[in-house]
Amino acid sequence: MRRFGRTLVAAALAVTVVAGTAGWAAGDRREAVTGPPPGAAAWRADASGPALPDPASARPHDVARFFAGLDRARKRDLMRRHPLVVGNLDGAPVALRYEANRQAILATGETRYASLASPGRQVLAFDPRGRGQVAEVFGDLERAARVSVIVPGSDSDATGHDAPRAAHTGPAGMARSLRASAGADTAVVAWTGYTTPVGVGLDAAGGRLAEAGAVRLARFTEGLDAVGAPDPVLFCHSYGSVVCGLAARHTDATDLVVLGSPGMRAGSAAALHTRARVWAARGPSDWIADVPNVEFAGIGHGADPASPAFGARRVPAADVRGHTGYFAPGTQSLTAFTALAKGEVR
Description:
Blueprint: H1 2-20, H2 40-45, H3 60-68, H4 72-81, H5 83-87, H6 94-108, E1 123-127, E2 133-138, E3 146-151, H7 170-182, E4 186-192, H8 202-205, H9 208-226, E5 233-237, H10 239-247, E6 255-259, E7 277-281, E8 313-314, H11 332-341
Parallel strand pairs: 3-4, 3-5, 5-6, 6-7, 7-8
Antiparallel strand pairs: 1-2, 2-4
Helix pairs in contact: 3-9, 4-6, 7-11, 9-10
């Protein structure tokens, strides 16, 4: 009974800390955007040629084989007819997805997305539902020797994907920083492909959104494999590390790197049941250290990945400032991340 009481108190404390740390306001409850992209019904009903792969059920490798059997004219016809489907269809040709998403972004007519359609942007996924989801590639995904994927945490969405802020923070900022450090033979994807919590309220303390995000992340990495991309390194920040923990056993990642993590919904690295090497970084002034590592009645994310008992390999982060400084140029953490992204760590 005493143990139960201590656990209950710890869980309540977790909610209190998560809701109040660093002066952030508790977030509103968000509904996860799931399922196939907008336009899927029209895609399924398209009778202009052979039956099209169902966006809800076709595996990315099946999608890749389907597109491999089409000529250029037919691919472009499908892209023009169904830009939101082609742009979000894991396994479809990369360059075709870039063009489809540019078309889909412009079609929204919304100024908040306009910068994503600028020349040179490589948007691999775009979904305007809810707060918007987006995945952007930095580098040449089709020719890169190494690929990394940034999985961000709370308050990440298509609108704020590249919002003005410190250059090395936010999904796009972290990806740009890593790509600049790792060099031209790497590609980095800023993947905001799930509905993230807003603020640090109950959504951030629970696993509901992470569970939905994990399904999408696993499918996204399968899509990378289907188009011949190298097995990725996943860099998972804050709540994104909860997503990565739940997706770990379903991805082909070579390395799973968590930074500023509140927990991964696993008691240890071994409990993730992944062949990937698991790494953890936490800076000395990161407020995430004040969040109790409990999991009770769906609240909290469990053991601390940065603790020796968890069994993750440690990433040096003694000079990291705050919760978002892990990709700052010159830091020990970015140096270590770069070596992992380049495949230099054996």
